[in-house]
Specification:
By secondary structure, the protein is of the alpha/beta class. The chain contains 8 helices and 14 strands.
């Protein structure tokens, strides 16, 4: 039976016409990079999928001149909706990206996928339906509220570790995730995140000696109360953050547009069609 109404202030799916997935792309201001990463990510996520979905570009603190340039690109990219949020009032504490992530849950679709603008994805098996795989995993495992995969997790200062046995073959249960790419079962995640203060403006902090940002909140939700974070390392999808740490032990990335462009160019060369070991990569 289709659910109706609202739970803990979060909308529930009320009609079979609502898309099964919302794909939200969180964008700040590097339009040159977004022009490369967004089409790659949407291709990896949606090409030949059997799932219904919509694409929303969430612009958070984006300069007005950049917003003006975006309107001509939405049809080309397959974006259904663009939202623009200023950072003048009611701004979340901690890392700047927290302001966007906490605003993405006003939806009726049962599943939400969030990708940050400096992330690129490559599907290495073109027959693999990533959206369907996410839905089926959530359906099989009722204690999994979130799913995430990042291929370059070796850079993380808070190291990725197994937390218990694998959820299923090829899918690890892990201690943490990154905001670069997250899939949510909205009704499992939202009430707990709300109870943990995730939608409050002042819950986050971001200092070298103390950090609690959106990814920490999501990791908290996903590893308490018998819940699990699914990390599908065996799936034929590669996800990379187009940046580098300011130094190996740091929590922080460079945020340098030129460096991000170089990292992306290296990845494009590595995953180009016909490259050794990547014959199935995206065209």
């Amino acid at each position: 039976m289709m659910q109706t109404g609202r739970t803990n202030g979060m909308a529930q799916r009320t009609s079979p016409e609502d898309p099964t997935f919302r794909i939200s792309v969180l964008f700040h201001k590097d339009l040159a990079l977004l022009s490369e990463t967004l089409p790659r990510c949407l291709e990896a996520l949606t090409r030949h999928t059997q799932e219904s979905y919509e694409v929303v570009l969430h612009c958070d603190g984006t300069p007005p001149e950049t917003v003006a340039r975006l309107s001509d690109l939405l049809d080309r990219w397959g974006v259904d909706e663009m939202r623009v949020r200023r950072r003048g009032r009611f701004v979340a504490s901690g890392d700047a990206s927290n302001n966007g992530h906490r605003r993405l849950f006003d939806l009726r679709s049962p599943y939400l996928i969030v990708i940050e603008d400096d992330v690129v994805m490559y599907r290495t098996d073109q027959s693999f339906d990533l959206l369907a795989a996410c839905r089926r995993l959530f359906e099989r495992h009722p204690y999994v509220p979130v799913l995430s995969k990042v291929s370059d997790y070796g850079q993380w200062s808070w190291k990725l570790e197994d937390k218990g046995d694998d959820i299923e073959p090829g899918v690890r249960s892990v201690n943490r995730l990154s905001t670069h790419f997250i899939a949510y079962d909205v009704q499992r995640f939202s009430p707990v995140a709300n109870r943990f203060g995730g939608f409050d403006l002042d819950v986050f902090i971001d200092r070298p000696d103390l950090s609690y940002n959106w990814e920490d909140l999501v990791s908290h939700v996903g590893t308490t109360g018998g819940r699990h974070i699914a990390f599908p390392e065996g799936w034929p999808i590669e996800v990379f953050h187009c940046d580098r740490k300011v130094e190996s032990s740091s929590m922080y990335h460079t945020q340098d547009p030129e460096l991000k462009a170089r990292v992306l160019a290296e990845l494009e060369q590595r995953f180009r069609p016909g490259a050794h070991g990547n014959e199935g990569a995206a065209a």
